[in-house]
Amino acid sequence: MKIKVSKLKHHPRNQDIYTLSSIEDLSESISQVGLLQPLIINQNFEIISGNRRFVSIKKLGWKEVEIEQRTITEKEVEFLLIHYNKQRVKTFREFLNEYQVLKRYYEIGQGKRTDLTFVSPNKGLNGRDKVSEQIGISSSQLGRLLFIYKHQPNHIDLLDKGILTVNQSYLQASREVKESDSRKETKNNNSKPIPNTWRFYQKSSDNMSELNDGEIQTIYTSPPYWNKRLYSENGGIGNEKTSEEFVNNLSNHFNDCWRVLNNKGSFFLNMGDTFYNGNLQNIPHRVVLKLQEKGWILRNTIIWSKTNPKPSSSKSNLTPSYEFIFHLTKTTDYDYYRTLTPLNEKTKPSLPPRHRSTNGKYSDTVSPYLPNIKGKNMGDYWNEDIVRTSVANQKLEIDGEHPAPFPEQIVTLPILQTSREGETILDPFCGSGTVGRVCENLNRSFVGYDLIKFV
Length: 455
Ligand SMILES: C[S@@+](CC[C@H](N)C(=O)[O-])C[C@H]1O[C@@H](n2cnc3c(N)ncnc32)[C@H](O)[C@@H]1O
Known about the structure:
Elements: E1 2-4, E2 9-10, H1 12-17, H2 24-33, E3 39-41, E4 46-49, H3 51-60, E5 64-69, H4 74-84, H5 92-106, H6 127-135, H7 139-151, H8 155-160, H9 166-189, E6 198-201, E7 216-221, H10 243-253, H11 255-260, E8 261-271, E9 275-276, E10 279-280, H12 283-293, E11 297-305, E12 322-329, E13 340-341, E14 376-377, E15 381-382, H13 384-399, H14 408-418, E16 424-427, H15 434-442, E17 445-449
Parallel strand pairs: 2-4, 3-5, 6-17, 7-8, 7-16, 11-15, 16-17
Antiparallel strand pairs: 1-5, 3-4, 8-12, 9-10, 11-12, 13-14
């Protein structure tokens, strides 16, 4: 039967579930071949099947349209709206809306709607399987979509725009859930007050007989520079006549660090270089080469770019403005809690052009790099800004507190990356105790050695 288009209206529940945009292709096909099936309307002239076709024919200026009118109870409306959309290419948002509607009917133990003749009994299926059967998506795909919606709701729009595939989004969401669970677990395990102690020994650290084997989780130290300052005549490192002697002495000095460091532990060695007769000695790398010969594994050479380097009046070379922080370990299976640096605007995902294949579906070939929204893995070039924001990021993640001011942050980061609260940190050349102060802040125990008592 034919009816005036002006008498018809959308069913209000349709708009809650479906969008009525992107109907250009549909309008085009209706203008060429007409309507292949009548619109289905209820007794109130509300459209149950054909809401998108209704938009198209209004756009095309149709005055009359073929309809089939049925008496439909309120109970049946939602089911029918979804039922008639089963074959259509839908957005992920629409699948989720359909799920929200149907899950109420299919919750375990309810089974209220089996009276509806168009709903197949789906014997033996669980609630989610029944819903996925109704809306025309596999149960596992629906499961992934629900997981993404729960943990990364902002991804749903990215999926619909073709920026992300369900797989990419699911992997990212799972990774983040795992990371956050492991953080919570550690926090819960540590809910008792954690004892943190401070010990200082005024003696040379080449023999730390006070410490047990493997007692230390992280070592962070800045040994004396060679040939710069006389710390002590007696056992003082740095007073050697040649740089060779210094390199040998210092690398042997660290033998006892190997003994006291846990196999899961880390050793951060911060060093600057020295000129001799105008010739830069390459001391940091020479020390590290010796340490590698002794079995230490070099995991990173971090450049610490100084904000206010010591000025130099030289007219023939540049002002030295950075130091090295070497990250060394005893094995490759060491404890590590990675640091994320916040993203800047440029690294946030942008929208590539939409790709549609000939069947009208969005193409899955678009595979952009989607950065973790919380930040990216920190690089090995550190300056004050990078360190400040990264420390804030990692520390806020852990306990919501703001960290200590620079330059203690340069020490804070390695300690956060390689130890947990309550574990013990060693500085074998502790000087005024910067590392110890950071440990107090971070709730770690501290052991310091120095020939001179500053602390
Ligand atoms: C560059 S300073 C360390 C500065 C320290 N990071 C701070 O926060 O003040 C090097 C320190 O190593 C100490 N030192 C030199 N030889 C030593 C040795 N054999 N054992 C222990 N400490 C030593 C010096 O007394 C000096 O305090």
